[in-house]
Amino acid sequence: MRNFNSILIANRGEIAVRVIKTAKSLGYRTIAVYSEADAAALHVRMADEAVLIGPAPVQQSYLDMTKILAAAKETGAEAIHPGYGFLSENADFARACEEAGIVFIGPSAEAIDLMGNKAAAKRRMIAADVPCVPGYEDQDQSDDTLIAAAKDIGFPIMVKAAAGGGGRGMRLVHEEKNLTDALASARSEALNAFGSDELILEKAIIEPRHVEVQVFADTQGNAIHLGERDCSVQRRHQKVVEEAPCPVMTPDLREKMGAAAVEAAQSINYRGAGTVEFLLDAGNNFYFLEMNTRLQVEHPVTELVTGMDLVALQIQVAQGEPLGIEQQDVKLQGHAIEVRLYAEDTAQDFLPCTGRITSWKAAAGEGVRFDVGIDSGQEISPFYDPMIAKVIAYGDSREVARHRLIEALKNTVIFGLTTNRGFLIDILNEEAFAKGEATTAFIGDLFGGERLAARAPDQSEMAMAAVLLYQVERDRAKSSALFVSDQLVDWSSGGELLTRYVFASEDEKVDVTVAPMREGGYNVVVGETSLSLEVMGRGENKAQLTVDGKRKHVHYEALTDGVLELTDDGKTLRFTNEIAFPLSAAAAAGSGQVTAPMHGTLLDVFVKTGDTVEVGTRLAVLEAMKMQHDILAEVSGVVQNVIATAASQVSVDDLLFEIEAPE
Ligand code: MV4
């Protein structure tokens, strides 16, 4: 008999949905928790029961242990699955569950605590003979000791916060003379971010791959690994692409890394799902980095190549049952690649975008999996991570998986907010990635400002946008009572009835005229160029057109009057008919009223009243959604008013500065 039959999911979004699916399929009663912002969310609708735990901010909802435990008590939940993020690696929460008699679906509080400190974790791993980066991880934190240790290790050196993760408090130091300063700044950043200024030192591995091994352990002392994932494609320590297996893996290396990962888990009496992160250098040497004591975002690629359901296995172990499989039963087959689809603007330093997803339709396709937490019409709110979905493709070979993923991205309908889809497609198409050569340096090396800038539409795209706008407007006119005759709407004598659009393209405006032809089709003039265009088929959000004889499949959405978004080859362009919307001179020139682009914390303010600024002067830096965003002046002039103060919380559209431009 099972020890528990109900599971509360202490999370939201796609991972809550993911966990609920498996829990339900195994016959568990599922209980969702949600914040006021998530009342209409998918995870709430899917669960058997749902409990409102508080307002939108995470401190008052998804991070509030007391409220979550109260929800468990109220609904009689016997187990809690924490998902990833939020409370998943909070040892106090794991302990509190245990004390309340609720099964925490995860490792012991002791294991979470131990792996939460890099220095302690590394000392344990060295003792267990798990290969680690040569370094210093002892208690004596004096400069003299650290400098002496650094000389022994040899430069370049990595300075890391012992309590840290994700690159914060991390410094790469090439020469001894820069070490003292780096130690001081790393300490202050670490203290600020993690409440501890303890540091460790490591030899810097140059352009490594990030290769992590999925491990699983049961309470009978069995531990296995489920192969590795390569997560080298990251941007500022945020993973962008993950795959299994690692493209340069060999059976021999996998056996060694797998054995080291299993040893790491066993040496700390681990239980459940865990991930052992390694750096892999160009000579195939691997080094333990840290262990994540949770189910990871990228677990689907492991599921696809092993055929196993990792959430089901987590629940099985939490029930006290043995794993039931041995290492030789784990067979890896094929290749899986995952990308994280985000609501963010790559052209604006990856600024997260919030707002309503007006249309969403995941592409169907062989070997394609979408892990999604949202639905058409739902909001990406400023309170949570702006990930829209994980898109995962499987194939017998890496090339099949890669191409299926590109097609799935291109064929997915998504409108309403800016996404990183185009960036993901560009990465997957990049030669170094295609060859499996991407290291942690890949994005930094290949995706600089130029490549991330918004692409200007070409003439064919402008012509398609104009014709689609024309047809949408015609449909609206037809359905309006004022129009009685179809002939009036459609009639043309080959160019006499012209509809004119003006689209902005980079710095110039382009005139586009649409002339319906008598025999069907359109003659479209874009600037000086004449194109012939035919609409072969048009449904909700999808259209097939022929432009000068070339067939195109596009997605489109007519937003408000005169505004149309067009997705061509996975790149979304927005067209605003500037005849319908004359830009005010002030708006065109940028505004002296500088407002917050999103909710967040102002880390620093760089100007004061009376300062003279230029277009592009950095006024302040805002931290939101784990990232820093520069707030720049849009006009040159004199700062008249500074409303912003450092360390204050701001909401989207809050006025921060007023700049008066000279006459
Ligand atoms: C390193 C390293 C090179 N040498 N440690 C970055 C975040 C943290 N998890 C560890 N990180 C690194 N540690 C040594 N001794 C390079 C990185 C690193 C990195 C690691 C994984 C994925 C992406 C990365 C991007 C830059 C640096």
Task: Describe the overall structure.
This protein folds into 5 domains: 100 residues, Rossmann fold (3-Layer(aba) Sandwich), CATH 3.40.50; 70 residues, 2-Layer Sandwich (Dna Ligase, domain 1), CATH 3.30.1490; 244 residues, ATP-grasp fold, B domain (D-amino Acid Aminotransferase, Chain A, domain 1, 2-Layer Sandwich), CATH 3.30.470.20; 122 residues, Glycoprotein, Type 4 Pilin, CATH 3.30.700.30; 76 residues, RNA polymerase II/Efflux pump adaptor protein, barrel-sandwich hybrid domain (OB fold (Dihydrolipoamide Acetyltransferase, E2P)). Helices cover 28% and strands 32% of the residues. It contains 19 helices and 41 strands. The strands form 11 sheets. An 8-stranded antiparallel sheet has the order 26-27-28-29-30-31-32-33, covered by helices on one side. The protein has a 5-stranded parallel sheet with strand order 3-2-1-4-5. The longest helix is centred in the last third of the chain and has 21 residues. The chain is globular, with a radius of gyration of 28 Å. Ligand MV4 binds next to strand 9.
Give short descriptive properties of this protein.
32% strand, eight-stranded antiparallel sheet, binds ligand MV4, alpha+beta, Rossmann fold, five-stranded parallel sheet, 28% helix, 663 residues, D-amino Acid Aminotransferase, Chain A, domain 1, single chain
